Amino acid sequence: MTALQSILIAILQGATELFPVSSLGHAVVLPALFKTGIDQKSPEFLPFLVFLHLGTATALLTYFWRDWWAIGTGVLGIGDKHDVSEARRVFLLVVIATIPAVIVGFALEKLVRGLFGVPLIAAAFLIANGVVLLFGESLRGKGNRPVSTLTKLDALIIGCFQCLALIPGISRSGVTIVGGLLRGVDHEGSAHFSFLIATPIIFGATVLEVPKLLHAHVAQGVFAMSAIAAVAAGITAYLSTWFLMRYFKNQDSWALTPFAIYCFLIGGISVVLLKFVL
């Protein structure tokens, strides 16, 4: 993998991880379409992937540092009684929303990993992702509940939606935002909670790969290139989050529709090319 390829993939990762268009879907489909020659099973790709996720998670942690500072100090019991109680409530909601994906991810790890090598399936699920986004827009709950009103049941339902993102082509941010919409929370609040629960998920996925990384035989210079790519992914992820939070705030009535159309186009074109041309 060249330095230019690594930077381009990092930028793509940083954007698609937060935009509701599936980073996994793009990571599976695009190399097959453009025949990049990148071997995602090579020892060099593992540290690259770990660093990209680390950069993306760090960007989310940086953007929402006030939320995490409040949660951290509240869990430790620092602050007035009301702030501590609210921080612990939010922390519990994040934990509840994270648990389903952890359980399903471990239970279906081999099955899910098998889908990573099938670009046609990922392309088809990009189309399915578009359907899910439109479904969320058409059936979104009445009213505009603020994210502060989320209950344990709401968090669990959103967490169950998050499990769908284990399939390449289904967007984690997309399905969790749809889950929030169906619980009556507006786009901005749904996106806020979606990005909050993304942080432990991405950090957790990174930590799980570290033992493999320690035993991998990596060529000289790979870590330096991966570190540079991580910075590119982090900057892109931070800018993507900044844009999306403002976008969802200002476009509450139809915010997911453009992303659904994008998924239909990219997924449909990819299916045709992979099935009949390439």
Summarize the structure.
By secondary structure, this protein is mainly alpha-helical.
What does the secondary structure layout of this molecule look like, with pairings?
Elements (H helix, E strand, L loop, with lengths): L2 H14 L6 H12 L10 H19 L1 H11 L5 H27 L1 H7 L3 H20 L13 H12 L8 H11 L4 H29 L6 H29 L6 H21 L1
Helix pairs in contact: 1-2, 1-3, 1-11, 2-7, 3-10, 3-11, 4-5, 5-8, 5-10, 7-9, 7-12, 8-9, 9-10, 10-11
Provide an overview of this structure.
This protein is an all-alpha fold and 278 residues long. It has one domain (3-277). 76% of the residues lie in helices and 0% in strands. It has twelve helices and no strands. Helix 3 (45-63) runs parallel beside helix 11, helix 8 runs antiparallel to helix 9 (172-182) and helix 10 packs antiparallel against helix 11 (222-250). The longest helix has 29 residues, at 187-215. The radius of gyration is 19 Å and the shape is globular. The two termini are 22 Å apart. The relative contact order is 0.20. The mean pLDDT is 86.
